[in-house]
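Tip: read the tokens left to right.
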């Protein structure tokens, strides 16, 4: 099948090539009905922009850089899928870097992306990143920048995040309503934005139900191997011990589940377990895992859309701000109510 061009679309719809081109770019100059006709026809014929041809028309590289902590993390792989879908449809290449949770590698990745002359950058901060001066330098150079998932309030840029507070509140409230009172929280390093937001949601739910916050029930991970086992041992040695675990990541959820099973702790009869995760096999685990689901692909799509708006400097580009995407609590067997007396 021959490659479809803008000229083919223009001829079929009896429009000028410039009108079709602007409609495909989402220009505010084109009325919504014309945009709809052009987009639907282009999709039906599987039209895709040619990034090389587009880059030859100007100084644009038609490439965006994406920097994530780890591609193997299921959340980030989903987010990248969303980013690539939007970029591909808009005629952009995607260059992916991973920091492996290293601040030094993050700085090096940023430098490499700039050296490759990307038109803009999407980044989720590493767990070691507290100094964002390398990103402030990008702002001073007017390189379009959007942060997603792990963000920083020191940067005046668009940020796309899940509703971490709301998701953590819903998870903790669910456990409280099931009668749990000693809810342990396993989370990641305390300076990361998502850690702070999820901890705040956890604390707010405890406060709503009149349960005192106990720092002894909170454990901060370091992304080390098998650290969930040590956390579980420390927490189960407390008197009284926890009657529920709320974990703040995929890795900690799986690690906690494995550690509790190895120690013959019955779930949910002795303790409930709920994660903050995007695991696609959560319903296949034993027991099936209750989770707060983040819409990772949608977050990736929104982040890419906002970045491309900045790159193309649309007349009506959305102002700088935080885009918060709702989360969803999915209740499964690991947190079902047992003989514990539930909260009224």
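Filled-in amino acids:
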């Amino acid at each position: 099948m021959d490659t479809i061009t803008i000229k083919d679309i223009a001829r079929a719809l009896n429009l000028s090539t410039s009108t079709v081109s602007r409609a495909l770019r989402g220009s505010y100059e084109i009325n919504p009905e014309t945009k709809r006709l052009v987009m639907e026809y282009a999709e039906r014929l599987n039209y895709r922009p040619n990034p090389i041809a587009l880059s030859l028309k100007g100084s644009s590289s038609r490439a965006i850089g994406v920097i994530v902590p780890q591609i193997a993390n299921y959340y980030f792989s989903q987010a990248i899928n969303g980013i690539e879908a939007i970029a591909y449809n808009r005629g952009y290449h995607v260059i992916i870097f991973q920091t492996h949770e290293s601040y030094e590698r993050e700085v090096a990745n940023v430098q490499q992306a700039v050296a490759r002359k990307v038109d803009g950058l999407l980044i989720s901060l590493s767990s070691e990143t507290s100094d964002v001066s390398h990103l402030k330098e990008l702002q001073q150079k007017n390189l379009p920048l959007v942060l997603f998932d792990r963000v920083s309030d020191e940067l005046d840029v668009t940020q796309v995040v899940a509703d971490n507070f709301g998701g953590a509140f819903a998870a903790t409230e669910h456990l409280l309503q099931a009668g749990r009172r000693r809810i342990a929280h396993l989370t990641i390093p305390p300076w990361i934005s998502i850690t702070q937001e999820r901890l705040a949601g956890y604390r707010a739910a405890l406060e709503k139900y009149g349960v005192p916050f106990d720092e002894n029930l909170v454990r901060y991970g370091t992304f080390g191997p098998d650290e969930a086992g040590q956390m579980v041992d420390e927490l189960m040695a407390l008197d009284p011990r926890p009657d529920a675990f709320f974990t703040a990541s995929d890795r900690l959820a799986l690690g906690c589940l494995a550690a509790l099973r190895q120690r013959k702790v019955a779930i949910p009869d002795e303790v409930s377990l709920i994660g903050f995760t995007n695991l696609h096999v959560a319903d296949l685990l034993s027991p099936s895992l209750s989770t707060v689901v983040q819409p990772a692909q949608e977050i990736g799509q929104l982040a890419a859309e906002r970045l491309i708006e900045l790159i193309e400097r649309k007349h009506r580009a959305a102002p700088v701000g935080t885009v918060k995407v709702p989360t969803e609590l999915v209740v499964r067997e690991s947190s079902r109510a047992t003989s514990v007396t539930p909260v009224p």
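The chain has a mean pLDDT of 89. DSSP finds twelve helices and twelve strands in the chain.
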